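User: Can you help me understand a structure? I only have the sequence.
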Amino acid sequence: MKALAYTKAHPLTDFQIKDMEVPRPALKPHDVLMEVKAFSINPVDFKVRGSRTLANGEPVILGWDAAGVVVEVGPEAKGFKVGDEVYGAGDLTRSGSYGELYAIDSRIIARKPRSLSFTEAAVLPLTALTAWEALIARPELELGGGSSALVIGGAGGVGSIAIQLLKQKTQAKVIATASRPETIEWCSRMGADATIDHRKDLEKELERIGIKEVDAIFSTTHSDTYAGVFPKILRPFGNLSLIDDPKTLDIVPFKRKSISVHWELMFTKTLLSYRLESQGEILKELAQLVDEGKIKTTANTILKGATAEHLRFAHELSEQSKGVGKIVIER
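Assistant: Let's start by predicting it. Here is the structure, written out as C-alpha cells:
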C-alpha cells in the first residue's frame, strides 16, 4: 500500500516524510483494518517525528486520528463488520493513519457520527478522548451548579472540544484563554461563556469578568508559564489537569489549598493495556452527542489530498501553534 512515511527522525527544517510503498498492515486478533478516508494532525505527530527511528531503516508511519471504512475484521474483533464507517485514535506504539490502510484495535474505535463526513469526524477522537478522560471520566472532579472551569488554550484542538464537553456534561461556567480576534471568536463558537487573555495576568483577567477563583483548570499548553498563578486562582480543594510536558512543575505551593493535580495521556490505556473498551465507549457516546447536535466538529483547516506538501504545511501549523481548531487531510 501507499503511505506517507520516513526512515529517520528529523526536524521540520529537514522534513523527510514522503510517499512510500509499504507492506499491507498485519492484523492482530482484536483489530479491524480501516481504509483511511481522512486523518488529522496532532502535536504528538511532530513530537514522534523528531524522535522515532526504527531498526533496519523500516518506514515510520505517523498519524493516529482517522476516519474510514472497515475492509477487514480480525478473528476476535467484535461489533464491527466490513463496510462500517468508523473513527478512532489508535495506539502510539503502532504504525499510524498516514497510510491508505490502518490496522487499529476494535476496542478503541466506534462507528463515526452519522451526521459528519469522514473529514469532519477524523478530527475528534484523540482530542475528545483526552478531554473526556481528563474532565468527564474523573468522579472526583465535581462541576455542578455555580462552578467554573478555566481552559488554557481554548482555541487549540483539545481546548476546542474541552469547551464543548464541559458545556454538555457539566454545569460549570466555562472560561477559555484566547488573545487574537479569530481565537476569541472560535472559543465563543465552541460555547465558551467568557474568554480571557493569556498574555495578561490571569488573576486580574478573571477579576475583570467577576471571578475570583475557579473550581478547575484544564491546561493544554504552557503549564510551566502559568504554574505560579494556578494556586492563586484555584479554589481550595480545586483541581488542575494538564496534558503538556513542562520542563519543571513546582506544585508545592498547591498544598495550602489542598489542590489536586493530575496528568492526562490519551495513550495510557493502549500503552498499558488498561480498560481499552472504555475508549470505544467514549467515542460511541461522543458520536451520539454529535448526532444530537450537541457537539460540533473542530475541523477548521482542511487540506484536500494526502501529499507530502500538504503534510509539511500541516506539521508547520501544528508545531508553530499557528492553527485554530484542528487540521485535517482528506485522502
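Now, to help you interpret it: The CA atoms of residues 262 and 268 lie 13 Å apart. Residues 128-263 form a domain with the Rossmann fold fold (CATH 3.40.50.720). Let me know which part you'd like to focus on.
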